[in-house]
Structure to design on (788 residues):
């Protein structure tokens, strides 16, 4: 048979390549090993320890960590402030998702269309995300100061005194002021991803649509939006999670105040652990909050897949 | 060179790097605590090893770095102090760092003991201290903060030497009797600590009102005679408000101290202590009167912007408005603020400090909160606890306290180091309270402190009544 010599030649080659394959596989695993060890030590072990801690009582220093069963969870379920802080987290998540996402997409589309200075705008729009959260917090606490802040001074200068507020210390404005700072701080990330997504859409699609007389809205609705769907899914999940997990911005700007009007779960967890020295309860809160985040992410993924199907 | 040879070389390089990583890991592990007592220490060593391994794998010169580190360690070893004893002090205050370093140099010259000052800063201090305790690598000495709740877990875990026996042997002469009472943990304290003294303070902190005479003058008022009673003070603040100036402010984080200060018009120190310990109720006329002050200030339009500053830097915000913008007539703050003013607004020297005016319906002479400020705790499990004790004793002697507080404008804990003739008007209000501070044996629970802060914010915003806030305090006390 004509095929015999070929098979005869192929056999020894296959025999020789197997150890090389194995060696390459081993090399790949060796290169992956440091990353796996790091993930194990800094993510997986603390994750498991966190769950174990949620069933223990610990003051953060003592070596004594008695098992307390479900006591920590019972305490958390009775903590009204923790549960009301969840609502604020949802507000921050929704604002980040809808407004933050819309602003990022709008800016990315504008820069994508810009014929000149696009590199400049790319840099400028991404700059807020580079700053430390403490710097951002201090900067905005100055800008939003009721007496000497630029915003109120500007409103006063143009005759809009009635719109002046104590932005960070009035219950009606505090959440929205913090949310606005959050959006400003985080828009650069979504902007860059959207811009990359827009640059991947072939220009021929738009040219063909223009020849067919499609309006700008139709071009967005039938070309841009569907082609950006994978990027939108990633950006929306990350922005939603970022909004829900907001911490530094709230801590620096309001510390959860006035009253508990801007309290968020992460801040509550921080206080429970580092101020009240109840690490077990803090771990229980983290477990509950973490499960909530996972559930929301899965739900959002499901929605995205359904709408993209 | 063939491709295969290059690959082999790469593998060799990889093996060399891995070897370097393991060596570096071993060096790091050896540099750590050599008496591992818990699983945490083992985890830390593992973490160090992993970090080193990662660093070595990604950076080709890891082995070289390890060798360089070893070389520099040898160089450092050549510069040992005359008697070879080295102590490490973990310091919380950046403002005191330079003074501490200068004193450490003097101590080295005098005794041959080398004291290294590691300054963490107020933001990172407790995290660093906690990390040190968990890794079993505590410094020989560390800042003992006045906040009981922050320090008690370390004392309870055996990381602080009981200084009571040394005080009994005569060291107590370096402290005023009221400070000694404040730093003594009594039998049956809520934290469950063994009775004793676990930190030696070297500064005293009191709380008073800072006043800007220029703004008072604009409202037709003279601050050369500060208001003596609260009704008089509120009346003046009303006039300041009418003159379109910002009358009064205090940071949200200081509200519990403000109320504790004011309630001393109605309660003895023992009664305040018992309330903090949960033995007396919060829902009483005394605490109701104290919280009513916030309502009175609010209704008089005395609180600037009708809100209290919040956020992690709320006190810095208030200090900025008083010292830097200078558009705030009065601000309730601690003696530490004087050093802030000297650093950030050295030209603003016209302000004064005066005691919080007494209540119109008060039964007792008001006493300031604060008392002892920062000091030092000694790690009894360190390598040289006796030498650390000698150093701290030396630090609290009048000569060193004077040197320290000539550099840092604070009030020394040693009464012999306080020269009242040299005090500026900015400091006199605070210094006049040194002997009029509360001696509270039970610290305020952190949860109650939080409830007090949030409750007072709610009072200012008219969201809650005084009695509702008192209910919240009761609930927080029981939590």
């Amino acid at each position: 048979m004509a095929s015999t010599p070929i098979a005869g030649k192929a056999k020894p080659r296959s025999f020789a390549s197997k150890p090389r394959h194995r060696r390459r596989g081993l090399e790949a695993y060796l290169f992956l090993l440091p990353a796996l060890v790091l993930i194990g030590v800094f993510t997986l072990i603390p994750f498991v320890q966190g769950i174990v801690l949620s069933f223990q009582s610990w003051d953060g220093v003592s070596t004594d960590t008695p098992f307390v069963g479900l006591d920590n969870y019972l305490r958390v379920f009775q903590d009204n402030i923790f549960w009301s802080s969840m609502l604020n987290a949802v507000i921050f998540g929704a604002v980040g998702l809808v407004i933050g996402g819309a602003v990022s997409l709008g800016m990315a589309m504008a820069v994508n269309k810009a014929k000149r200075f696009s590199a400049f705008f790319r840099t400028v729009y991404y700059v807020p995300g580079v700053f430390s959260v403490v710097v951002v917090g201090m900067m905005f606490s100055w800008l939003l100061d009721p007496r000497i802040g630029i915003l109120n001074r500007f409103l006063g200068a143009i005759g809009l005194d009635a719109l002046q507020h104590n932005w960070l210390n009035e219950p009606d404005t505090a959440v929205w002021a913090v949310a606005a700072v959050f959006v400003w701080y985080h828009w650069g990330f979504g902007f860059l991803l959207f811009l990359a997504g827009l640059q991947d859409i072939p220009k021929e699609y738009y040219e063909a649509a223009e020849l067919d007389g499609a309006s700008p809205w139709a071009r967005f609705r039938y070309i841009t939006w569907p082609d950006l769907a994978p990027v939108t899914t990633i950006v929306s999940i990350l922005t939603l999670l970022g909004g829900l997990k907001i911490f530094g911005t709230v801590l620096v700007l309001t510390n959860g105040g006035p009253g508990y009007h801007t309290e968020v779960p992460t801040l509550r967890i921080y206080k429970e652990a580092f101020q009240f020295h109840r690490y077990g309860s803090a771990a229980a809160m983290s477990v509950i909050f973490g499960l909530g985040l996972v559930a929301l992410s899965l739900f959002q993924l499901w929605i995205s897949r359904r709408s993209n199907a | 060179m063939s491709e295969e040879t290059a690959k082999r070389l790469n593998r060799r390089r990889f093996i060399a790097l891995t070897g370097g990583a393991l060596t570096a890991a071993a060096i790091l592990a050896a540099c750590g605590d050599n008496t591992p007592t818990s699983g945490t220490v083992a985890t830390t060593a593992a973490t160090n090893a992993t970090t080193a391994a990662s660093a070595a794998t990604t950076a080709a010169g890891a082995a070289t770095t390890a060798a360089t580190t070893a070389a520099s360690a040898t160089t450092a070893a050549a510069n040992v102090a005359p008697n070879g004893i080295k102590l490490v002090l973990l310091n919380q205050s950046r403002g005191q760092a330079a003074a501490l370093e200068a004193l450490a140099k003097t101590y080295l010259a005098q005794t041959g003991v080398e004291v290294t000052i590691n300054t963490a800063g107020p933001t990172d201090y407790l995290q660093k201290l906690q990390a040190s305790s968990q890794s079993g690598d505590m410094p020989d000495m560390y800042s003992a903060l006045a906040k009981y709740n922050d320090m008690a877990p370390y004392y309870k875990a055996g990381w602080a030497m009981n200084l009571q026996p040394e005080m009994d042997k005569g060291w107590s002469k370096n402290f005023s009797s009221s400070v000694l009472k404040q730093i003594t943990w009594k039998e049956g304290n809520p934290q469950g600590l063994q009775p004793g003294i676990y930190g030696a303070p070297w500064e005293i902190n009191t709380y008073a009102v800072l006043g800007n005479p220029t703004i008072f003058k604009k409202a037709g008022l003279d601050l050369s005679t500060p208001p003596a009673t609260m009704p008089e003070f509120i009346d003046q603040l009303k006039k300041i408000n009418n003159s379109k100036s910002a009358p009064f402010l205090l940071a949200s984080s200081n509200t519990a101290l403000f109320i504790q200060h004011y309630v001393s018009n109605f309660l003895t120190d023992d009664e305040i202590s018992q309330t903090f310990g949960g033995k007396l109720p919060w829902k009483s006329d005394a605490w109701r009167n104290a919280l009513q002050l916030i309502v009175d200030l609010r209704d008089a339009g005395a609180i600037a912007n009708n809100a209290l500053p919040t956020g992690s830097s709320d006190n810095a915000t208030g200090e900025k408005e008083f010292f830097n913008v200078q558009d705030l007539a009065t601000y309730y703050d601690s003696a530490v603020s004087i050093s802030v003013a000297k650093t950030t607004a050295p030209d603003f020297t016209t302000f004064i400090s005066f005691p919080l005016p007494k209540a119109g319906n008060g039964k007792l002479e008001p006493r300031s909160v604060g008392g002892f400020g920062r000091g030092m705790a000694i790690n009894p499990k360190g390598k040289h606890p006796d030498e650390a004790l000698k150093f701290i004793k030396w630090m609290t002697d009048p000569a060193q306290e004077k040197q320290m507080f000539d550099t840092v404008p604070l009030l020394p804990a040693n009464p012999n180091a306080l020269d009242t003739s040299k005090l500026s008007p900015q400091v006199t209000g605070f210094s006049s309270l040194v002997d009029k501070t509360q001696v509270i044996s039970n610290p305020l629970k952190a949860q109650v402190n939080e409830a007090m802060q949030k409750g007072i914010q709610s009072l200012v915003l008219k969201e809650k009544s005084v009695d509702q806030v008192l209910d919240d305090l009761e609930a927080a006390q029981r939590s």
User: Anything to note?
Assistant: The domain at 86-202+374-396 of chain B is CATH 3.40.190.10 (D-Maltodextrin-Binding Protein; domain 2). Residues 3-31 of chain B form the longest helix (29 residues).
